[in-house]
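Input record (one chain):
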Amino acid sequence: MNEISGFGKFLIILGAVIIALGVLLTFLPKVPYIGKLPGDIYIKKGNFTFYFPLATSILVSIILTIILNLLFRK
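The corresponding structure, as predicted from the sequence alone:
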């Protein structure tokens, strides 16, 4: 019975993460400077556009690492 309880907790956490991701994707375009940081690569030539949010990815990674370390610290 303990295995099922652990799986249930995993599904609840997964659901919360999916909801948080949905909210984030809904409101992220309205947050200023996200995706337009210095260090983001943006190349536009004619009808070709290449965009790679390098600095934004690093910033999001650092923030998520801090949050997850605080939540799952034993």
